């Protein structure tokens, strides 16, 4: 049974390889059927089930759309395709990776909207898709990623309001939405559900309204970056309650 399942992982990865441009022949020279998939570059297998549990292909100059076959790696815990030349939409088949804990797709040319099916990945702890060209709104379904600790979507072209559901993911430690086109105001109760939040980066957007006084309830906050927006009104005194705060950025707003 194990051999057959590992063969299915091998088939999925060979199909993945065949649909990519690999100018440095990194995969072409290493991913061959004559070698155990667990010895392929960038591939890690689990000890117990002997299935592919991690795929790390960062900085390999790979180019193409992300093939859907990765969705067949049913034991995958970590997927890192960052710093390549992937483009196009995320295949919906990635939503089948229910064991996934780490998804890193930063520094590519991925586009389209961030898909709502990401909310199906309940075990993901780290979602990093920075420096792409994602557009549209951040989906409300991310609230279903209730183990999420790091949400990093900086340097994209996201618009609309920051969904209120984001502020209900109590496991979050870092939110980085720096340099998008997000608008609207922050919810008045934004820190009611953030016992672990340490870093909040919302600078270089188009956010407006008052900075909620509830910001003072983010007790573990160490970095607060709200600069280069359209916030107005008085800086809330409750920021003084943030005893662990090390860095505060409020410049280039309309604050009093």
From TrEMBL:
Membrane topology: Single-pass type I membrane protein
Domain Leucine-rich repeat-containing N-terminal plant-type: 6-45
GO CC list: plasma membrane
Main location: membrane
Name used for this protein in its record: Leucine-rich repeat-containing N-terminal plant-type domain-containing protein
SMART domains named in the record: LRR_TYP (SM00369)
InterPro entries on file: Leu-rich_rpt, Leu-rich_rpt_typical-subtyp, LRR_dom_sf, LRR_N_plant-typ, RLP23-like
Keyword list, A-Z: ATP-binding, Cell membrane, Glycoprotein, Leucine-rich repeat, Membrane, Nucleotide-binding, Receptor, Repeat, Signal, Transmembrane, Transmembrane helix
One of the record's GO molecular function terms: ATP binding
Subcellular location: Cell membrane
Pfam families: LRR_1 (PF00560), LRR_8 (PF13855), LRRNT_2 (PF08263)
UniProt source species: Gossypium laxum
Protein family according to the UniProt entry: Belongs to the RLP family.
